Amino acid sequence: MRAAVGRLLLGLGAMGAVTLTAPAALGAPADNAATSAYVRADYALVRAINANLPRSEAELLRLRAQAGRECPLAAAGSPQDPESTQLSDELIGAMVLNGARSDRGAVRAFTVAVKSLRWRDRALTGAIQGYAAKLRTLLALAAPPLCADVKAWAATRFTSLPARTVSFARVFMAAWVGAGELPSELAVHESTADRALARRAARLEELVSEFEARAVETYSEIMSVLALSP
Question: What is the pTM of this model?
Answer without folding.
Answer: 0.87
